[in-house]
Design a protein that fits this description.
The protein has helices at 2-14, 19-33, 41-51, 58-71, 74-86, 92-108, 111-128, 133-143, 154-163, 167-173, 175-193, 206-231, 237-255, 264-294, 297-308, 312-327, 332-350, 354-368, 376-385, 389-412, 415-424. By secondary structure, it is mainly alpha-helical. It has one domain. The longest helix is centred in the middle third of the chain and has 31 residues, at 264-294.
Length: 425
């Protein structure tokens, strides 16, 4: 069954069939040709059961809240506030791009959305300040990897449900690694692009600082309200996602006044399509995961890996290599749904906490989005800067290596990930 299941999946992917459809077809073929003597109706049952979950309601709500805030002027207010506070630092525009991406990522929970929202404004500004196009695009693309790492994150919600761990714990566990990634990106920016920036000598007064802060305060408060509400026991992560939608609508419509009622059909349509893609992939992965578990494939794979490599550190490195490779070709949700059932037994044998494994998986898949050749962040940033993938790929390498270094650090020292959750437990 394992050969049929993975053979059909690989064949479908080689034909460039979407991952969700490939998972479904592989499951049906394996079930029909295997010796389980199970009715094909179980495929539909597993699909429905997978998405008939209260925690999964967080997915459409977080997607919608991100789309509302993107349209409601959040990005430019965050950027303006960052410019006022950080404008005198070396490579200040690149630092502003990274910090704004971190804040916006906490709202959108999406890498491409973060690159598009922040990069759309900052790439032209960096070019005007003397940055070469390819370097400006590389900064925006690498900063966009914070989108799914800084909580709340849709990918963390998906992993938490699949791995049966607390969504709230996943969120808080992502804070320290997310800040470390942001720090690494800022360091590389200062080293590689500081010499290009032509300083804009804007006189910053106390009045300007106060004004920009109050203009951005509603945007800055959103992650605080959402995460504070979850850890304060006021609402669950799923309820928090609904609060985020209401908050985003009120701020965008009545405070910033940039959201028009005529914009809502388009926003709702975009959110519905994004939600459908995520949940359809989740549904299609359910029978695939069930067949793997029924055939004892994850345990067999874990045993084979441990049999071939006796060192825990080599096994952890191998996990990262596999996830990074998959991240070059597949999107985050697909990798989490496909690999979680296989890696959880291995993590348990290695003594790696499931929450730490989840953060490592999320960061791996996020780094994959800036790893050529099939890196979606590079495509988005390249389109914004009007340059080729080849041009941006050369400039992304220092950022890519820095993020991989952070990844390896938290992999071999998972206490970094678990430190903050342990304080709040």
């Amino acid at each position: 069954m394992a050969i049929t299941l993975f053979g059909m999946l690989a064949f479908m992917l080689l034909l460039n069939i979407p991952i969700a459809i490939s998972l479904g077809i592989a499951s049906v073929v394996a079930l029909l040709t295997g010796d389980m003597n199970t009715n094909i109706v179980v495929v539909v049952q597993r699909m429905f059961t997978a998405i008939d979950s209260f925690p999964f309601m967080a997915v459409p709500f977080f997607i919608l809240s991100g789309d509302l805030m993107e349209k409601g002027g959040i990005s430019k207010r965050l950027i303006r506030f960052a410019q006022v506070i950080l404008g005198k630092l070396p490579a200040s525009l690149s630092i502003i791009t990274t910090i704004s991406s971190a804040f916006f990522g906490a709202i959108s929970g999406s890498n491409p959305a973060t690159v598009a929202a922040i990069g759309g404004i900052m790439i032209p500004n960096m070019e005007k300040a003397g940055y070469p196009k390819d370097r400006a695009a590389a900064i925006a693309a690498s900063s966009g990897t914070l989108g799914v790492v800084i909580p709340p994150s849709i990918s963390m919600v998906t992993y938490a449900i699949i791995a049966s761990v607390s969504i709230g714990t996943m969120f808080i566990a992502g804070v320290i690694p997310g800040l470390m990634l942001a720090g690494a990106i800022i360091f590389i920016s200062i080293v590689t692009v500081g010499r290009f920036e032509i300083k804009q000598h804007e006189k910053i007064t106390v009045g300007i600082v106060i004004k920009s802060f109050f203009n951005a305060i509603w945007a800055l408060l959103m992650p605080v309200i959402i995460l504070g509400g979850i850890y304060g026991g006021i609402f669950t992560p799923t309820e928090a996602s609904a609060v985020a939608v209401v908050y985003a609508f009120i701020v965008s419509k009545f405070i910033y006044r940039e959201l028009k009622m005529k914009d809502l059909p388009g926003i709702l349509s975009k959110s519905a399509v994004s939600t459908a893609i995520v949940l359809f992939t989740v549904a299609m992965s359910a029978p695939f995961s069930w067949l793997m578990t029924s055939a004892n494939i994850p345990t067999t794979i874990a045993g084979a890996i441990l049999g071939a490599f006796s060192s825990k550190y080599v096994v952890l490195l191998l996990i990262n290599v596999i996830l990074l490779f998959l991240g070059m070709f597949l999107e985050t949700q697909s990798i989490i749904l496909l690999m979680t059932p296989m890696l959880l037994p291995l993590a348990q044998i290695l003594g790696l906490d499931p929450v730490a494994l989840g953060i490592i998986m999320v960061i791996n898949t996020s780094i994959g989005m800036i790893t050529p050749p099939m890196a979606i962040n590079l495509f988005v940033a390249g389109n914004l800067a009007d340059i080729s993938i080849g041009q941006i790929s050369r400039r992304i390498m220092p950022f890519l290596l820095a993020e991989i270094a952070i990844l390896l650090l938290i992999t071999y020292f998972p206490a970094i990930i678990m430190w903050l959750p342990s304080l709040l437990s």
